[in-house]
Amino acid sequence: MSEDLYDRLVEGDHRALARAITNIENRAPGYRDLVSKLYAHAGDAEVIGITGSPGSGKSTLVDKLAVHYRERGETVGVIAVDPSSPFTGGAVLGDRVRMASNVGDMDVFVRSMSARGTLGGLSTATSDAVKALDAFGKDVIIIETVGAGQNEIDIVRTADTVAVLVPPGSGDSVQTLKAGILEIGDVFVVNKADKSGADRTVQELREMIQLRPDTPGPRGLASPAGGDGHHGHGHGDGHGQGHGSGPGHRDGHGGGGGHGGGNGHGGEHGESDVPWAEDEEEEETEAWVPRIVETVATKGEGVEELVETVDDHHAHLVESGQLEEKARTRTAEEIRTLLRQDTAGLLEGEVDRRGGMDDLVDAVLADETDPYTLADELIEPLAECLADRPDDGE
Question: Percent helix, strand and coil across the chain, each rounded to 5?
């Protein structure tokens, strides 16, 4: 990898950025040295993950999001992770015909990448490409995933904020969310909200979010829907109702986001009649209740509210310290992934030294050995080598 490519990328050369991502995706010689250098320039971009079932309108929504961020003066990088071809390993939907609004805008960089068979829809190359966009200086990086159902959980390890798209009137799709993807969403987007069944989908999502184990409060009365104007209840010396978009407070303020007015204040903040209120007050202020936003991406409706919700979540991450925790978790996972890959590469070499995988399989089928014994034998030289290494300082 030439030093010139690195220099041009960090200086803002779009052609160098495109070539660097190509080398990263193809795992070309020298790509690791390039990514290693990029780490010193990365860490400032806000990373947003967009996932959901196929046909939910992810590409169209991402296109409109990019337009909105550009109108705010921010630069945008988009990585569209597509299903991989079983023949070439490349992205099947590389044309991205639904992302046409930003054509010609050099401050919006759109790149399709292959999932390369990973169940979570993301590959290590995707994370490395995010580093390239970050080091390049993009303010916002949007990752659109394959949309393969509950296997989309890899996005959590890469994005700061995850938005899950759910098409309206799809009861089966909402039920599928219970299997796992429900737990990864920071924002749930009912796209195509002008279609019939949108209200029911919003209600189903609201009920399911209340059942999430990380939803604040054991009473399960928090209203997670954003901007839907539903009622929440606040308690004080008396009782009051209010309207809003998030969990209610137990200090007499109206629920739903704490925006509505409660009329049962006691003193300055009201006396709580809930025994666990005082103990959980600090915990609740640090918890994020997933919000629900309705959009019609083809018309650009609801996009501004979605961006504001993402901004709110990012601010929450910063204030609560969770953004730093996410960065630590992400880095730890990157280290583990590289160790797994490199160790697998070393063991593949040992397999070849022993005659190749076919010979090992023949030995197992001939009842001469078994896979567990073979694995132990293959890993033993590496384990002995590490065990014989002196401790630091010796």
Answer: 45, 15, 40
Tokens of 315: 């601010």
Cα angle 23, 27, 32 (rounded to 5 degrees) comes to 85
Question: Is-contact 144 59, C-beta < 8 A?
Answer: yes
Mean pLDDT computed over every residue of the chain: 77
Count of CB atoms situated within 10 Å of the CB of 222: 22
Quote the strand ranges of 130-247, DSSP E.
140-144, 161-166, 187-190, 231-235, 239-243
Statement: residue 230 has pLDDT above 80? no
| 125, 133 contact by CB (below 8 A) | no
| For residue 385, pLDDT beyond 50 | yes
E strand segments, the chain: 46-52, 76-82, 108-114, 140-144, 161-166, 187-190, 231-235, 239-243, 291-294
pLDDT digit string, tens, across residues 50-94? 988 778 889 999 999 999 999 999 999 999 987 654 444 444 444
Q: Six-digit token pair at 240?
A: 């009051």
State pLDDT tens for residues 120-144.
335 788 899 999 999 999 999 999 9
Section 29-40 average pLDDT: 94
The residue with tokens 């019939």 is: 196
CA distance 332 to 32: 17
The string of DSSP codes covering 295-362 is -BGGGTBTHHHHHHHHHHHHHHHHHHTHHHHHHHHHHHHHHHHHHHHHHHHHHHHHHHHTT-HHHHHH
* Residues of the chain above pLDDT 70, percent: 67
Q: How far is CA 152 from CA 51, 147, 185, 316, in A?
A: 7, 7, 11, 23
Strands 239-243 and 46-52: unpaired
